[in-house]
Structures are given as structure tokens and as C-alpha cells.
Amino acid sequence: AATKLASAEKLMYFCTDQLGLEQDFEQKQMPDGKLPVDGFLLCVDVSRGMNRNFDEQLKFVSNLYNQLAKTKKPVVVVLTKCDEGVERYIRDAHAFALGKKNLQVVETSARSNVNVDLAFSTLVQLVDKSRGKAKIIPYFEALKQQSQQIAAAKDKYEWLVSRIVKSHHEAWPNVSRKMQPAPEYQDYVYLEGTQKAKKLFLQHVQRLKQEHIERRRKVYLALLPQALDALVPDLDEIDHLSRAKAEKLLEAKPDFLKWFVVLEETPWDATSHVDNVDNERIPFDLLETPAAEQLYEAHLEKLRNERKRAEMRRAFRENLETSPFVTPGKPWEEARSFIMNEDFYLWLEESVYMDIYGKHQKQLIDRAKEDFQELLLEYSELFYELELDAKPSKEKMGVIQEVLGEEQRFKALQKLQAERDALILKHIHFVYHPTKETCPSCAACVDARVEQLLGSRFIRHHRNNPSADSNIDRINLVILGKDGLARELANEIRALCTNDDKYVIEGKMYELALRPIEGNVRLPVNAFQTPTFQPHGCLCLYNSKESLSYVVESIEKSRESTVGRRDGHSAQLPLTLILVNKRGGGDAGGETLQSLIQQGQQIASKLQCVFLDPASAGIGYGRNINEKQIGQVLKGLLDAKRNLNLVVGSTPGLKDASDGADLRVVMCLMCGDPVSADEVLLPILQAQACRPAPGGGAAVL
């Protein structure tokens, strides 16, 4: 209760944190070592204390106040810890103050920072009467006002943080320096302190990180169905597997690392992989999450449904094929009730079964039209007595329909009467004007087929073309194979040639030109034929299922590219399919030699070419190819090359329209392939009458 204090050159402390760390805080000393006291704050703890009797405390406060009152200095009673205050204690404290003259009470909470400034400002006003009188606000009302003030300041501070902090990698020291000049930062720190400001910053950073992780998770989960479709598209492969075995199966797939990444540390969202936005491969441990498990189950269900739908499509087609109620031209509305069942409606969309029905109807109609055309040919006598303009009268049409009416092939087109009548008229027109344009067989007309084959498949021999004979001395050979097979065999063949790329076959020197191809044959750089290279044969090499597939695809692509070209003869290019061994021997990629031989024989049969396995050809990497073996292959190609000229002597009356050279063309009208004119065929051919080809072209036997 002293009014004069002496504390020379002592530091003024603001908080206990300064103890021992004085240099880290602002330092102020007591002025002149002497300090007059102008007023007193009499603090009363109204919280429930351990082993403390509030009544005894209040007696002590009363005695202390009596001492302070003697000083004639202003006194303000400050109730502290009101955030934990006991209502009775607060009531008793107010009752104590009411018994004193002009003794004011301020309810405070230092922890909540409520009314602390008000306690001091109230005392200052009592000391300095010139100051305005402070309004004393009860604790709970002041707490409400302060909470609203803090909430507003917090909203502004959070807005400031969200505007400045865009990445979850930001650190508090850098960000706090950026925010210090901003009033939003200053106000919140004043009300709540730096630690709470930092806490809100850390919460914002954590929220940004979780949002980033969630975005990455969505990207991975969106990619997962595609990965499953690419790696395990076969239901039989995974339908019976547990999750653990399915994951092992995925890891064993060749393209596994294209879709997934196996991290050394887990979980994936706690590793640096989450920030590697350039790497969109799916963390493998993500498969253990519930969302990924649901996607895997959805993949299984999709495969099962696809299989079921395929079965339903197949069953639907079988129903159509076996149903006697589905006839040519019958509308779907009439056939529906005889075909559809509950499973078809459940598993097939309307567009699907309508498409299947439409295709089936087209097949039925085409077949019925063909049968009807045969019927018209069988009843050819009906069309003898018509006018020259081939327009039958109404009565004649009635007679035709009456005669044919009992035939099942006529009745089959009952729902397509207009098309049936059109076929009759078309047939009549063909009978009186037989040309390939009016032929009912259309593109399959033999006359049109012969012209097409003669124009696109045969190389005409020109009597006065000296290059035709000289060209026989040159062999242009394509070597087809992937992964270095073609280049290596070409080098081995060149090693058997002379310095100027000449090769001796049966004592005669031939110029040998090799064209190894290992890429896409549709590209000009890999084409079989170029303006300066006309191939005479092709060696097709393989040592695995993949390389055999490449050979087949390349041959088919090359044949497709030459369809319709008059100068293209890749379609009948002599082929030799050769199985070669990998270096070091052994199985080719896990495939047995016998399996590769069987596959090669099947492909050779499909391509209609010669097949040589290592036992028959003696060709394989790891050992030299002898000249005799290469010579046998080249001799076969040379013979095939000679046969392509199709010159088999001279027969009077058969003339090439281009230069008058005598020709005898021997070919198969079904496939267009040339046939050797031997002693068996020639007498038969010569015994047949020949007629000029349409348009005055080469005569055809």
C-alpha cells in the first residue's frame, strides 16, 4: 500500500518470458529509480482455487482495501479469471464493492484478453478527472463484443493468408514477413497473438496440401480403369483371382511400368511423388485404398457384363437364324414378339438388337434375291416370246407371276413385291440385252472379272522390248523381317556375292539387288516397290510370334496398297517364309521351335507360299549360310519371275491388242492366278472355242 517506490535502474518487466532472455525483448528501466504511485488495482481471483477458501480471501481483500483507502489514492477492484469464474464469488465481490464509497468493479480475463484495457483506463480516469469516464461493461457482454471483433479480424486475416499463400510448400518466416505491413495481419496479431496467426497459416497450408493430394488422387483414379483395361482385359485371367494375386499378375505384365510406379516409401501421399506432376503413373499402393478397390470390382463387373452382353447378342442372332417367323422383308414390329425375351430386353439396348436384326434381314434378303435369280434362270422359257423392247405387258407379267407363284423362292419375297418385280424386269432386260453392265451378278460377272484380271494382273510381253530379256539377268529381292533380322540376313547374302553384287546361279551370273525392310510397309521408305526397284520375290523371316505377326501384317498391307494398280504385282509376288533361330539358340521368347514351325506352316498355307524351317533350309543365326542354300532359294524365285511373263509360244488368232504379239493366256478365272500351260492343259484349252474379249482386247480361252 506504499505510495512511493524506489527501484533504481531496475528493468521494467512485461511478462515472465523475459526472465533469462532480457536481450530478446524491449528494455525499459524504472525512471530515476523512484516511482510515485497514483492509484491501485485491487485484483480478486474469482475462479475456484485448490485448497483456497474464497471467504477467507475476501477477508484479506477487505483488510487490504482498508490499508489502500488510507492513502487517499483511487482504487479499482479487478475480478480476474472471469472465464473460469464462480457465479457466487463474483456476486460476493460485487457485494463487497457496493459497501464501499465509489468503489468500481471491472470483470476481466487475462487469458481471453477481456476488459484488461478497461481496468487500467478506469483507474486512469479516476486519477485524471479531465479524462472522460470509461463505461464499465460486464464480462460476458464484453466477451461477446470481443468475440465478434476477433471473428471479423480472423476472417480478414484468413482472406489475407489465402491471397498470399498459394502453395503448400510456403514457410511461415517468409510469409509472416510479407504480411507484416498488412492491417489484417496487425489487427489479428494484436487481438490473438502471433502463435494463433501462425496456427491459422499452418492450417491453411495443410488444407492446400490435402487439396493437392485429392487432385492427384482423382487423376490416378481416373487413369486406373484405363490401366486395368490395357493390362487385364480378359475376364478369364482375373475372375478367379484374389486381390493379392491380381496385383501380382499386374506386376508381371510387360506394360506394368507404363501405368504404375512402385514407391520405396508408402503411403504415396506422404512421399515426394505427390508433387511430381509430370509423372502421372499410378502409385501401386493406391490399389490398397477403398476407392481403388471399388474401381477394380467395377472393372470385373464391366467384363462380366460385356461377356453377358456378347452371349446375349450371340443368342439373339441364333434366335433369328432358327426362327421360322423371321422372313425376308418382315418389319421388326411384326417379328418382335416371336424373338424377344426378358434377357434380351435386360442386356441389349434397342439400337444393338435393331442393328443385329437389320444385318440379319439384309442377309436374308440378299440370299432370297440370289435364289429368286436362280429361279428366273430355271424358268427361262417364260421370257422367250417378248417384244423386242423387252417390256412385258400386264398380262405377260401376270402369267409369269402365276407360273412362279407356287415356288417357295417366289413366296420368300412376298413382303418385297416391288423389289421382286424389279428383279423380273431386270432379268428380262438382261435376256434381251446381255452385257456385263446388265448382268445380275454385277461385279462377279465373268466378263467383267476377266477384263479386270487382264488389265491389272498380267505383264504383257513386248516383242520389240530388249529390256525384257536383259531384265531376266537381274534379281530384285525383298527381305522382310523385324528387329534386325532382315538387315543381318542381307549382310550374310552380300558376303556370298562378288564385289560388284553379282551372284552365280547354275553357272550364270546374275545381278542381285537386296532391299531389307523392317518397318511400316505403308511408308514410302519401306515400300516393296519403288520407281527404281521392281521386286521379283520376297524372303519373309521370323523367329517369334511377334515377328511372324509383323510379316503377315506387312504382306497384307502391301497387297492392299497394290489393289487396282495396273503395274502392281505384289499380289502375286513369290514369297518364301523362313524360320530363323535367335542368337544363342534356345526357345524364341519362351516359344518352342515346334510351335513356331506349326505357326509358320499355317501362315504359309494362308499366304500360299513356300515355308522353310531351320532343318530344311539350314538357315539360322549363329552359323554361316552356305552358297548352295541361298542359291536354291534364289533359283526358285528366278523361275517364278520367268513364269510371270506368261509367254508360252505362239497361237494364231490370239492377238494382244496393244502390239499384235501372239499370246496364249492360261489362268484361273476364280482367283486370277496364272496356271502353267503343260501338256495336260493345252490340248483341253485348244479344243475349246474362243471368243474375243469385250472391247476388242486380248482373246481369252
TrEMBL record:
Protein name: RHG35 protein
Pfam families given in the database record: FF_RHG35_4th (PF23083), Ras (PF00071), RhoGAP-FF1 (PF16512), RhoGAP_pG1_pG2 (PF19518)
UniProt GO BP: regulation of axonogenesis; regulation of cell size; Rho protein signal transduction
Subcellular location: Cell projection; Cytoplasm; Endomembrane system
InterPro entries noted in UniProt: FF_domain, FF_domain_sf, FF_RHG35_4th, P-loop_NTPase, pG1, Rho-GAP_domain, RhoGAP-FF1, RhoGAP_pG1_pG2
Domain FF, first and last residues per copy: 248-302, 309-363, 365-430
Encoding gene per record: Arhgap35
Coiled-coil portions: 293-320
Cross-referenced SUPFAM superfamilies: FF domain, P-loop containing nucleoside triphosphate hydrolases
